[in-house]
Amino acid sequence: MSLKDMIRRHISGWMNMDGPESDVVLSSRVRLARNLKGRKFPNRASEAENLEALAEIEQVARGLIESGSLLLRGARWVRVDQLQPIDRQILVEKHLVSPQFVQEPANRGVLLSADETVSTMANEEDHLRIQTIHAGLRLGDALDLASQIDDMFEASLDYEYSERLGYITSCPTNVGTGMRASVMLHLPALAMTNRLSGVVQAVSRVGMAVRGLYGEGTESVGNILQLSNQVSLGCSEEEISDNLSSLTRQLIDQERSTREALARDLRRQLEDRVHRAYGTLTNARILSSQEAIGLLSDVKLGIDLGMLGGLDSSVFTELLILTRPAHLQKFIGRELTPEERDVCRADLVRERFRIDGLKE
User: Fold this and answer.
1) Which residues are 226's β-sheet partners?
2) Is the CB of residue 113 less than 8 Å from the CB of residue 132?
3) 20 to 30 A from 178, CA-CA: which of 102, 171, 311, 355?
4) Which tens digit of pLDDT belongs to each residue from 64-91?
5) What is the set of domains in the chain, with CATH numbers?
6) What's the pTM?
């Protein structure tokens, strides 16, 4: 498989789009948690009960695919336990399913739209986890799409719902709308000026959660973090989306003003850092995952500030995914040791930059 074939096959359609505020906001995501009326939560049900729930959801999902809906044209239904372990991990690396979802694959399935903007997990923590994702700051669009998919499922499934509380979910913090909205942010300037920890503390005080690259329980790497609502009860879906969008715009302004200050007051040092990162990525023979993401973060900053002419920011998005362990092993076609992955990662990064090289 060539690298171009790898990119076409493994980069989700939405990743190739330039979204609003994409210099800071990598993606916007909305997730709706729903449960089937009268059925135990997946973590409380027996294997037979989860299999029954999966069969019910699968029947509806396949019907939606066959219905000819434009939203799900070209969609596919995937049984997780029928995937190879490496392919399960690829779904995680592409942010289509949670890490927990693939750890115990039995009686679990996922509905994926053709461009992977829609990903609906069956039998995760809840019976249904409807996820939609867009490039850039598009929480409103992600919510609209999620609501449409939700309506399509609800037309055939009875949800567990309380007039007083709203949607009943496995985790109490999701009760109400059952909605988690999140944005993935790239904040290198705030990190460089040691202001990122203060930002994290500030947003936590206003009811938002800060998580790492792969969500709850993961660390921030490459100056990337996820910001999401903590409470679902007592707010409408629109209020959650609007509040998160408003806070995100404040962070965008802080990040951009800090970038401008760095470019104005420390331009030579910043250019040196950006070009050193580019030089390392295009020449290194060994690259760890942590080092690669850190260097890619600097390169993206340089692209966004116009310091690396001819490079497109899509190189950052692509390599953020392709340099992950499962993707590397899929590209090579066999299991790799950590040392072999570091060599393969460096080879792949050099080749990707060769395809879309710097123009002086």
Assistant:
1) 184, 211
2) no
3) 102
4) 999 988 889 899 999 999 999 999 999 9
5) 3-258 (3.30.590.10), 266-355 (no CATH)
6) 0.91
